[in-house]
Amino acid sequence: MFADDSDSGSGSGAAPLLEFAGVTAGYGSTTVLRNVSIHVQAGEIVALLGPNGAGKTTTLRCASGTLRPSMGRILVDGRDVTKIPPHRRAELGLCLIPEGRGIFRSLTVAENLRLFVPRSSGSPSQALDRALTIFPALQSRLNEVAGRLSGGQQQMLSVARAYVGNAKIIMLDEVSLGLAPLVVDEIYRALATLAETGVAMLLVEQYVSRALHMCDSVVLLRKGDVAYSGPPTNLDEQSFLLDYLGADFEEDPDSHAG
Ligand SMILES: Nc1ncnc2c1ncn2[C@@H]1O[C@H](COP(=O)(O)OP(=O)(O)O)[C@@H](O)[C@H]1O
Ligand SMILES: [Mg+2]
């Protein structure tokens, strides 16, 4: 097993790996997020849910550092990173995988992975081997140009890159977008294995019921406010879905049938 966190404090007392404390942010004079608080612990998978335009991508931008909050703080492993730039946050182990996955499509799978192995972390082939134990589907595609992989394999490659890059916090925008359900299941199995190694994950997911079944904790954004935050087990899926869809209906007056 991978559990080799010799000196990390375990259990509920540990500081979250990623924390939003009362974050307000937006674009120009438009406020998009209002007083958003989120905690992601080591080994935890948190799903960030909400209708289109709710502010999910904006939340990830604040975390990665490409958008500066107007109020509130963002902490990585207890350290205030609110004012530090994206590349320094990446050095602290924060990795954002954007919608579209951000891989180098014209490079091979192996080249994509090797590029992300830090110089300090020893042999690149060992890092690749570690990644392939979590994403065995990539093994037979190592010499394939990444642009020729299926959508699911590209998503796996994007996460495998983060892993070989020693990311401690992986944020994925639109995990399942455009992928077949079986492929998504495979990706979630890999994400769960990755979480067991102590990585913290904040996942933007379109499919509510999948998120409720696969994640340790759920944050529902509605128009930039946190409408629910907590374990999925406390939720009645039906009423949650209604609530979730209800927010969409509010934004679309045409959908109100007489
Ligand atoms: N670069 C931007 N400039 C101005 N407004 C933006 C920008 N990006 C997103 N927005 C607005 O912010 C709100 C939240 O967007 P976003 O975070 O992308 O939502 P989601 O990812 O939940 O669909 C939307 O109203 C969107 O129009
Ligand atoms: Mg988005």
Concise structural overview:
With 258 residues, the protein is α/β, with parallel strands linked by helices.
> What is the assigned CATH homologous superfamily of the largest domain?
P-loop containing nucleotide triphosphate hydrolases
Q: What structural class do the secondary elements suggest? A: alpha/beta
CATH top-level class of the largest domain: Alpha Beta
- At CATH level 3, the topology of the largest domain is Rossmann fold
Strand content: 15-25%
How many strand elements? Answer: 10
Helicity, as a percent range: 25-40%
Tell me about the largest β-sheet.
Answer: 6 strands, mixed
Name the quaternary structure: single chain
Bound molecules: adenosine-5'-diphosphate, magnesium ion
So how many helices? 8
In one word, what is the shape?
globular
Can you lay out the helices and strands and say which pair or pack?
Elements: E1 18-27, E2 30-40, E3 45-49, H1 56-64, E4 71-76, E5 79-80, H2 86-91, E6 94-97, H3 109-116, H4 124-134, H5 151-164, E7 169-172, H6 181-196, E8 200-204, H7 208-214, E9 217-222, E10 225-230, H8 237-251
Parallel strand pairs: 3-8, 3-9, 6-7, 7-8
Antiparallel strand pairs: 1-2, 1-4, 4-5, 9-10
